[in-house]
């Protein structure tokens, strides 16, 4: 069966249902998987963006100026104004690229205005992604983004229920016990530091789709480096190489997860937390000792893209007096004891800063 794409029987995606920041998040993630980057910075959400929402430099050294517009319509005059604003407020390099991403479709005059104006402005390469282009990319090439932002699955998933689920869980657990665990670690040592039970301090998660590639690490969506934290009955808790911003309300003791563009409000403090993702045993199909790139164990997973292996996420805030776990599946209001730990820790941090 051919890849699913927007047709008369497939409803068009409603980009207007995403708030502007969320749409910008989608566009940045789309650019991130479309090209290889040295850097890709979201700057529009910070306010003074000089006409640029996303700025990046590709691995080949090409500077890219990207403007994101969640408009219902975009005519030639507005397009020309967008490009002129970028040129006016930025020193455009000789090899620069401009990318316009819109939540609507363009007319022929709109396309002509974009390419002609961008070329006259000195951009060596010009690219525009319209609503139809984005839809096609999401359905045909990046279904993980389609599901993440719109909750639409472009693939029929294999049901993991009953006997099949039990068998796969048992198989994955036995592989973990055989290859990853240190049998000499005592219960007391494990209780003090759960990660000591693992032989390696880091692991590589590898999607089964990498077997189709000449280089198994050429696609960042198909592998991930993690740090094993704790063994559970159904899988492994792993710390990933990222940080979460948690806004904690000191008055009502509630918390919420912030994206890069959101700000804290009155009575809130921002806590930088580690991200802990749960990797279930039933996705683990093979474990190898390492390869020419990594000396740690490599876990082969029956999932693609690799981020789909994470079935639950919690956030850990490390304090001087113990760890606080923020779990979105539980009550968003912290217990009084956890609240007191955070207050005490913030006071100590402030005191340390004052003494420096």
> Which sheet architecture does the biggest sheet show?
9 strands, mixed
Order of helices and strands: HEEEHEHEHHHHEEEEEEEEEH
What structural class do helix, strand and pairing data support?
alpha+beta
Helix content: 25-40%
Number of strands: 14
**Average pLDDT for all residues:** 87
Q: Proportion of β residues? A: 25-35%
Residue runs with pLDDT of under 50 for 5 or more positions: 1-5
Overall body shape:
globular
User: What radius of gyration results from the CA coordinates?
Assistant: 24 Å
Number of helices: 8
- The termini sit apart by 64 Å
Task: Summarize, please.
The chain is an alpha+beta fold and 356 residues long. The protein has eight helices and 14 strands. Helix 2 (76-89) runs parallel beside helix 3 and helix 4 (131-140) crosses helix 5 (143-150).
What features would you highlight for this structure?
356 residues; globular; 14 strands; alpha+beta; single chain; 29% helix
